[in-house]
Known about the structure:
The complex is a heterodimer. Chain A is mainly α. Chain A is built from nine helices and no strands. The longest helix of chain A has 28 residues, at 2-29. The radius of gyration of chain B is 24 Å and the shape is extended. Chain B starts with a helix and ends with a helix. Chain B is mainly α. Classes of the chains: A mainly alpha, B mainly alpha. At the A-B interface, helix 2, helix 3, helix 5 and helix 7 of A face helix 1 and helix 6 of B.
Amino acid sequence: MNVDVSDARRRTVRNLALDSALFVAFLIATAPRFTGIAIHEWLGIAFGAAIVTHLVLHWSWIVGVTRRLFDRAPGSARINYTLNVLLFVLITIVVFTGLMISETALPWFGIDMRPNRVWRQIHHLASDASVFLVGLHIALHWNWIVRTGRRMLAAWFPPSMSAEPASVMQREVQQ
Amino acid sequence: MNVFWRVLAILAAALVIVGALMAFRQTEFAETLLASPERMRLEAGSDHDGRGPDAFFARGERGGLFPGNAGRHALERAPDPRGIVEVLKNLIVIGVIVALVAGILPFTRRFLSRRAKAKPAV
């Protein structure tokens, strides 16, 4: 039981750390004027890879809800699922169009992309829309973020011993 | 091995999206929807007078202003601390959405569960 709890806790910490890093990377990547175009492009590619990792880590949730989508899934899970699919589509479009208008990253590999206004417009439209969807994605997971954040803070700066039942930890890992 | 197949599935899904995007890009609809202002002007038959807000970037994209035909992106080539405004702007937008949705969510859940309870069991 103790092994399960510590394993679940470790996974929760890992998920929160990766998600926080993803959020910071997203915020920085959406401001190319701040980072300059080179960092913007490399960060965007790294962000794409991190999104794949994020999806692999939440694979059991994806498979579980996909299986139950049309019969037994609760309404909130369906909304969450639809939003996540939209977000995946948008992020894919942003990363792909970003590669199509790349001025630093792809030329570094010897691939020169001609400037294309249509790809650029799609890139800007999709990244603007993804800001809103990321906001909704965070909002739907806000309770988990706050709960887990509090628990992590309590673990790092312990005011008193707090023991959580394994079931709660397991549920949070699944989110 | 499991992870490999999962990554492959995710990449395959991304490839489907990219394929659809490429197909969309080829359509007349995309061309009209996302046509450049300069091209629209040319197609409309009016001559480009080189003035107005777009003229600055249009000149640059033709290669006269910025090296590498980068246009507006050339302005973003070097890091600029003033760009932090963009980060803050997006952070505020996300914060407002989170505040609104996370504030509304408990009421929505309560409403949905009340409705579900009110429904007679079949």
